[in-house]
Amino acid sequence: xxxxxxxxxQRWRLPRARIGAVVALALxxxxxxxxxxxxxxxxxxxxxxxxxxxxxxxxVSAADLRAAAAAIGHPLYWAGPRLxxxxxxxxxxxGNAYVRYLPPNVRAGDRRAEFLAVGTYPVRNxxxxxxxxxxRHGAVTLKLPGGGIAVYDRTRPTSIYFAYPGSNVQVEVYSxxxxxxxxxxxxxxxxxxx
Length: 194
Prior knowledge:
The structure is a single chain. This protein has 194 residues and is of the alpha+beta class. The protein has helices spanning 7-11, 16-39, 62-72, 126-133, 178-186; strands spanning 58-60, 77-78, 86-91, 97-102, 117-122, 139-143, 149-153, 156-163, 169-174, 191-192. The protein contains five helices and ten strands. The strands form two sheets. The protein has an eight-stranded antiparallel β-sheet with strand order 1-3-4-5-9-8-7-6, with helices on both faces. Strand 8 and strand 9 (169-174) form a beta hairpin. The chain is globular and about 40 Å long.
């Protein structure tokens, strides 16, 4: 999902009409899921995490992240537990998933691009796509242990993307301070939720 602009920065600056459409889609998907769960209920407690085509950002626990990772059919990446933060999970169409780290006083869905975030994107040939992006003008490619590669753009160093051979996802790590994102990736701290 390497694009010309940082996806996280774009995501939180969408026009109001588009945000309304996304919210309406998420509410409709949530309603359909509620009907399906309600009608198929066996009387036991419902699952804590319901996976839909798109969802509104919501604050979740580490256990909820593990449940979502088990349900989406591909790895879900995060930067591990971080003191003084809450986890915001957003699912998007196509299987994309975002984990954002919010301070306690920030509500889920806050539109500011001021917080650490990890995006997981199921794409075809993620390693080849990441390697190709590393050949673009202004790109910096870094080798990762285990044969992975990471790429960031010198002109937009707030996001770094990485992938491993044989993986079915590409991962984006965003921080308003790009060096933070790069350090997390290079230190091997951005891992699949497990």
